[in-house]
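[[Per-residue structure]]
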Amino acid sequence: MKHERHVLASLSPERDVIEDVVGKLCAPSSYQAFACRKLTDSPMPSIEALTEVVERLKAVLFPGYYGDSEVTPDTLAYHTGAHLDVVFRKLADQVKRGFCFVCLGENRACTGCEDQAMDKATAFLRSVPGIREKLVLDVQAAFDGDPAAKSPGETIFSYPSITALIHQRIAHELHKLGVDIIPRIITEMAHARTGIDIHPGAQIGKGFFIDHGTGVVIGETCIIGDNVRLYQGVTLGAKSFPKDANGNPVKGLARHPIVEDDVTIYSGATVLGRITVGKGAVIGANVWVTSDVAAGAKVLKANPAENGG
């Protein structure tokens, strides 16, 4: 066994193989389609840095649950201030990188990105207390909506819905401020971890809960009211979108559902297009919905006569 380990450790590819692969990967023709730093010297956004920003924000939003578990009321102000100081500096840098990244992609002169980034980071910092207020209501909705939950704290520690909403509500504030690309990276971090895909542009009301979570998709222009509950595998998506004269999708059109207050949508349901699901409606499992649903209606696959859509 020792001999085998020695032989494996001494193995390496022949030099000409490395040189050949490096040459192909570094040829401009192989990376021009996605390369950055051609027009500016600004580095690209960093997933590692944004991960630290989000983790520090989580420690501020739910102290003790994330970050230092030994934090006490006596040390809370120091704990919070220290995290926010780092968040501001790192977020401002990442926002600047995001602006520069988009400038490059659109072949625009990269001017004013740093000043914009400072303004956006400052405005975001002011929004953090409001983000916590919304998340506290999400936590309560998760506790109230799941008989298996023994305490609100259990949902903070362990529910994918809360993880996804922490990321989305942070990203949504940045999205509202007009920050480029960074919000989408932040929500995709949660998507990779939880299987819940919520676009940062989606507008989500108070007390939102996704039970189980995996496989849920919520599109960019969705508007979701208060006290809405979804189950795993629900899609709130686009039915179709127009194309311009060049055959490219027209961006920014409202194309996802409006879900009013107190709606419940069960697992596997697919709700598509700019339709409205009225207040208090219930969409059953594995139902395909592409037209408006009246307030209070029940849309059930097994009994279409009761459908209100």
Summary: DSSP finds nine helices and 14 strands in the chain.
